[in-house]
C-alpha cells in the first residue's frame, strides 16, 4: 500500500431506522466513542475499500 493514503467516509447524522435499528452515527457520536465497527455495508466496493484501511491512515468524515 502506498504511504500517505487518505480516506473520505460518510456519516449518517440523522435518525434512520433500518430493520428496526437506528443507524444514526454522527461525527459527534464518533468523537465520544473514538472507535466503532462499521457494520451493514452493502456496497461491495465500499466494503472492500474499508478492509484496506490501516491504522494511522488519514480519514475525513463528511
From TrEMBL:
GO terms for cellular component: nucleus. SUPFAM superfamilies: PUA domain-like. Residues 5-59 form the EVE domain. This is EVE domain-containing protein. It comes from Asterophora parasitica.
Amino acid at each position: 500500500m502506498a504511504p500517505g493514503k487518505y480516506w473520505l467516509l460518510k456519516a449518517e447524522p440523522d435518525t434512520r431506522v433500518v430493520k428496526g435499528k437506528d443507524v444514526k452515527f454522527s461525527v459527534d457520536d464518533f468523537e465520544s466513542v473514538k472507535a466503532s465497527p462499521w457494520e451493514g455495508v452493502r456496497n461491495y466496493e465500499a466494503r472492500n475499500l474499508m478492509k484496506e484501511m490501516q491504522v494511522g491512515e488519514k480519514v475525513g468524515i463528511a
